[in-house]
Amino acid sequence: xxxxxxxxxxxxxxxxxxxxxxxxxxxxxxxxxxxxxxxxxxxxxxxxxxxxxxxxxxxxxxxxxxxxxxxxxxxxxxxxxxxxxxxxxxxxxxxxxxxxxxxxxxxxxxxxxxxxxxxxxxxxxxxxxxxxxxxxxxxxxxxxxxxxxxxxxxxxxxxxxxxxxxxxxxxxxxxxxxxxxxxxxxxxxxxxxxxxxxxxxxxxxxxxxxxxxxxxxxxxxxxxxxxxxxxxxxxxxxxxxxxxxxxxxxxxxxxxxxxxxxxxxxxxxxxxxxxxxxxxxxxxxxxxxxxxxxxxxxxxxxxxxxxxxxxxxxx
Length: 315
Prior knowledge:
Blueprint lengths: L1 H14 L6 E5 L5 H13 E7 L11 E8 L9 H6 L17 H30 L3 H22 L11 H5 L15 H7 L4 H13 L43 H9 L6 E3 L5 E3 L9 H23 L2
Antiparallel strand pairs: 1-3, 2-3, 4-5
Helix pairs in contact: 1-2, 8-10
C-alpha cells in the first residue's frame, strides 16, 4: 500500500493550488514509509491532523490524514525531480534519514498512533468478550445503545423520511415524454447472418428500402416554445466545447432507426467531386433544422447517398 500512498501524495503536491487541502487514508502510522510520508506532509501543509470518522469501523486501523493550507508547489521545486524519480517504483531506501526527522515529530506521532491503537484494542477486546460470552443482558444493553445512537443521529442531523413517490403520477401524467431511441427487434438471427454476407449492391438495395420506411413524428408540437432574440438584445454567449465525438453510435436524442441507417451508409458512401474538385463524403447534417423537418431531411440525404452509390455500381 505504501507505493500507492506515495503516488497519491505526489499527485496532490503537483496539482494542488496554494491554500488547498488534501486527505489521505492510511492504516499504519509507525512504519518507515508512513513516518517519512507524514513528515513530508507536515513540511508541505500548515496543519496536519489524524482523525478517525465516526462512521469508520471501530475495530480496524483505518485513519485519515487531513492536511490543510498547502504551502504551494514552488516550495518543492528543488526536490520534486528527486521525488518523481521514485514515482511508481519500490525503493529499499527511506525518503528521509532518521537524523533529519525531528525527535518532537516522532514523539508526537508515536502518541498519536498509541491513542488509536489503544482505542482499537479496547474495541477488539469488547467484541471478543461479547462473542465468547453471549448473555441476554448484554444483548439488551447492546440493543439499547444502538437505539440511543440512532435517535441522537436523527435529532442531530434532522433527517426526514423521503416520500416513496418522488415525483408523483399527477406531475408525470402531464410531463412530455417520448422515447427517441426505441429498440426494434426485426428478423431472426439467420436473417441478420445472411445480411452480413450480402454483396455491396444487395446491401445498398436493402438499405435503400429500409430508409424509405423510416418515420418519426414529434408528438409535442403544441408544447414547444421557441425563444427568439432581437439582434440588438441578443445575449453574449461564449460556447466552450471539449473533445468532439468522432462517431455517435448511440443517442437518446435521435431515432434509433435513423442512427442505425446513418452508421451503415458510410460503408457504401460514394466519394464524389464537388465544384471545387475536392473529394468529400455525402453526410447527413441536421444542425440547422427543427425536429418536425429534420427526420425527412435525414431520410432524403441518406436516400440520395445510397442511390448515387447504386448508380456507380451499375455497369
